[in-house]
């Protein structure tokens, strides 16, 4: 039981890192970016190429995945996304869905349609016993990294000058411009950072979730569930939602494998009935 709980927490933490970038762009920038999974896939393929073709250490691949995904996000934000900030949400959805299918086709063309595998460092492989509980070393590594990211992200958004400028730019763009805030730069950096987090999540998830060209489509619904259940006004909501959904998904697939995939959707429905605006969203919030 404790082993299942631990694996569920690790899976939930990974979901949070994968989805928190979408929380930032949707909740703070009010932009529906369904192509978020494509940036995660980018980080995953960066890791695969660096490790399998060039023999680079897994630990160096993680920051590289973040940087490459952030750079791709920054370029696309300047070239494409910024023109749709004021567009209807339907236009944003159709635009980002189109990017998803373009990314899937590009990954299939350049990397092939097969499942990609990586070899973790020896110290991250296997399991160990702590107080009689079997704990996967790599899952423990994911929990530590993701917990640090969650705390750091919350501090950045709540305690820093950049976080204040971002909230001001979202709440009232005209007033923010009048106060001398470079709204365009703030949005570009925010989008790039969210894309980088997705890339880091994709790198961390390559071994656990698998990686193939259909990755953005397979996990799009999970990202949306995390944001819907957790809400978009805080980082804490999606974090707790990720933990709940991760534990429910792992436990459901273990105890009732014939309907395991149904559990996470049932939990989503119950939570949205009880808290339609998310766990920590204000009623009537976006």
Concise structural overview:
The protein is mostly helical. It is built from eleven helices and two strands.
List the helices and strands and how they pair.
Blueprint (H helix, E strand, L loop, with lengths): L1 H27 L7 H17 L5 H22 L9 H23 L15 E4 L2 E4 H23 L1 H11 L1 H6 L4 H27 L5 H16 L5 H20 L4 H15 L12
Antiparallel strand pairs: 1-2
Helix pairs in contact: 1-5, 1-8, 1-9, 1-10, 2-3, 2-4, 2-8, 2-9, 3-8, 5-6, 6-8, 9-10, 10-11
Protein traits:
286 residues; mainly alpha; two-stranded antiparallel ribbon
Describe this structure in words.
The chain has 286 residues and is mostly helical. The protein has one domain (14-235). The chain has 11 helices and 2 strands, in the order ααααββααααααα. The protein has helices at residues 2-28, 36-52, 58-79, 89-111, 137-159, 161-171, 173-178, 183-209, 215-230, 236-255, 260-274; strands spanning 127-130, 133-136. Strands 1-2 form a two-stranded antiparallel sheet. β1 and β2 (133-136) form a beta hairpin. α3 (58-79) packs across α8 (183-209) and α6 (161-171) crosses α8.
């Amino acid at each position: 039981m404790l082993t299942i709980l631990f694996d569920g927490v690790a899976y939930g933490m990974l979901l949070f890192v994968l989805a928190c970038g979408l929380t930032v762009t949707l909740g703070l920038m009010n932009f529906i970016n369904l192509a978020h999974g494509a940036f995660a896939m980018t980080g995953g393929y960066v890791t695969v190429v660096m490790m399998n073709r060039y023999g680079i250490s897994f630990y160096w691949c993680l920051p590289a995945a973040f940087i490459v995904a952030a750079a791709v996000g920054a370029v696309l934000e300047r070239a494409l996304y910024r023109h749709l900030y004021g567009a209807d949400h339907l236009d944003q959805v159709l635009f980002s869905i189109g990017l998803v299918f373009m990314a899937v086709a590009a990954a299939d063309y350049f990397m092939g349609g097969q499942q990609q595998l990586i070899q973790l460092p020896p110290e991250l492989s296997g399991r160990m016993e702590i107080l009689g509980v079997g704990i996967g070393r790599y899952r423990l590594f994911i929990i530590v990294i993701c917990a640090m990211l969650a705390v750091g992200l919350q501090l950045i958004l709540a305690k820093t000058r950049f976080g204040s400028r971002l909230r001001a730019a979202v709440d009232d763009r005209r007033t923010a411009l009048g106060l001398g805030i470079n709204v365009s730069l703030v949005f570009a950096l925010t989008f790039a950072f969210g894309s980088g987090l997705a890339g880091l999540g994709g790198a961390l998830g390559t071994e656990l979730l698998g990686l193939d060209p259909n990755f953005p489509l397979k996990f799009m619904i999970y990202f949306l569930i995390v944001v819907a259940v957790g809400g978009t006004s805080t980082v804490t909501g999606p974090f707790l939602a990720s933990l709940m959904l991760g534990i429910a998904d792992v436990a459901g697939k273990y105890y009732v494998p014939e309907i395991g995939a149904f559990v996470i959707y049932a939990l989503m429905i119950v939570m949205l009935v009880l808290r339609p605006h998310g766990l920590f969203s204000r009623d009537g919030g976006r």
